[in-house]
Design goal:
The protein is mainly α. Helices cover 64% and strands 4% of the residues. Residues 131-153, 280-300 are annotated as: Disordered.
């Protein structure tokens, strides 16, 4: 492979104030982290990443890349590590990318071909494992649909009265779980709002007692709220209380007649099925006993 581009001198990996030893007292700019500093962003994106993509593509436009696996791996790694903020990890990653860029600039075709072959085998193996997983999932039998068990799922704060199903649908389980977590967060939020409202009332009472006779402060309202100083907090607490009342009403709901008939029919079918299983077990035990008696009687 001929050298298509002029070798680009390696730029500093990090800004100057991070490249010196830590024991030297160098003035730093703590207000701007290094991953947002133009002295780090510009060399990294334009001198390193862009050069890697230019070297890995084809020398003639319209033709496939000369090293497609290396090119795809470079893009994948840069997407994966774009959120790194640790200085040692960023240095380690950029050092590896600079090694690849040095191989491109030095025209080390043996090293690049070996890397291309290794990445291609890795991709083929990954695709093979993915196809096997897809075939295994397709061969698995579908899960059984939920069926009535003849029992009742009593109403609670998180679910209305429902028939008990087996297996229980995942959607029903997630609904109960999400409502439970929302209630916990709402209870904590209401406790905080009630504490803030009490503090606000105490502060307003203090200022009224201090300046109530001298000025018109006690009769003046908050400009943002025409119904009192704690209007916003009262509204939020009222909305949360309405949700608590709605949950209590849900727990007091009763089963309707149609649902009870369905559950009773399922319960009857279950009892009939269990009765048939018991009869089969008794008949099998009786037949086995008769066979043993016949064997003992036929002996000389």
């Amino acid at each position: 492979m001929t050298l298509r581009y002029r070798p680009i001198p390696l730029r500093p990996i990090l800004p100057p104030y991070l490249s010196f030893p830590t024991h030297l007292r160098i003035p730093r700019t703590p207000s701007v982290p290094f991953y947002r500093d133009p002295k780090h962003i510009v060399p990294t994106k334009w001198s390193l990443y862009r050069s890697l993509l230019q070297f890995s593509k084809s020398s003639e436009p319209g033709y496939p890349a000369e090293y497609p696996e290396i090119r795809n791996e470079i893009k994948r790694l840069w997407r994966k590590h774009k959120s790194l903020t640790s200085i040692p990890r960023v240095q380690q990653f950029l050092n590896g990318q600079y090694d690849i860029l040095s191989a491109f600039q030095s025209d080390e075709s043996t090293k690049l071909n070996e890397l291309e072959s290794r990445l291609k085998n890795k991709r083929v193996l990954r695709d093979l494992c993915k196809s096997r997983d897809t075939a295994a999932q397709a061969s698995q039998p579908d899960s059984k649909p939920p069926r009535l068990t003849g029992g009742y799922l009593r109403p609670t704060l998180f679910n209305p009265p429902l028939p008990r199903l087996k297996p229980q649908p995942i959607g029903l389980s997630m609904m109960i779980h999400n409502r439970l977590r929302k209630r916990e967060r709402r209870m904590e939020k209401r406790r905080v709002y009630a504490s803030l409202r009490a503090d606000l009332k105490l502060e307003v009472a203090f200022w009224r007692a201090t300046e109530g006779d001298d000025t018109d402060w006690s009769r003046r309202k908050d400009e943002r709220s025409h119904f009192g100083w704690d209007k916003l907090l009262r509204e939020e607490i009222g909305l949360m209380d309405k949700r608590f009342i709605k949950e209590n009403m849900r727990s007091d709901m009763i089963y309707d007649s149609n649902m009870m008939r369905r559950v009773e029919r399922a319960k009857t079918r279950k009892l009939v099925w269990w009765k048939g299983k018991k009869e089969e077990a008794k008949s099998a035990k009786r037949d086995k006993g008769m066979e043993q008696c016949n064997l003992t009687s036929n002996r000389p």
